[in-house]
Amino acid sequence: MRMVIDWAKRFGAPPWFYAKALPFQRCFGVLGVLLLIVGSLWGLGFAPQDYQQGNSFRIIFIHVPASFLAQSCYMLMGIAALLVLVWRVKLADVCIDCAARLGVGFTLISLITGTIWGKPTWGAWWVSDARTLSMVVLLFLYLGVIALKRALDGQRSAERAAAMLVVVGLVNLPIIRYSVDWWLTLHQPATFTLTAAPSMPSSMWLPLLLNVIGLYALFGWLLLRSMRVDVRMRHYGADWTL
Length: 242
Hints:
This protein is an all-alpha fold. It is 76% helix and 0% strand.
């Protein structure tokens, strides 16, 4: 545990992060673009039609990766919030700030593609079931963190208040994950999980997997790039930012 804390503090030092993150940022960017191109072309152009939904199911190659990432992004913020509240790691607040902005975008993509998918599947653009409503709550949590950090005077108080809101909001993640199991909803169960074999043929789930990994890699690129810009702005004029 001590080693983890020491590593977090070292990684959380802005000069160390600013210098070391750039190679990872570039690798994530290249990997993300390549995987998304291959996965999207495969899924949207060559994967077979679904026997029930026809071609409308193809939006799964955008909707599912965005939904996964919207939740994972908030989980990352939860870890960063604990680092802010318990160990006061400086870079963790930068991570929360940058990840919240990205989380808004991915959650909006998830909700918009979900409504597009819902129209031919359910016959309605919007169905207020547990999964969709909990995703809306996630969107407002992201927006709340952004608004709170800008509404409070004093950097330290804003950091702690935003971190506490993030921690409280973590309770929404299991609701999103298990809502289709706990309540009767129109939303279909998880497309694939780590504990069970996929319910679709490999010609469908392999391009989906490529898009999931690719979008996570692209998120890594966006997050590191955004954090490096934020660090440079906060420490403008320091020798190590030149």
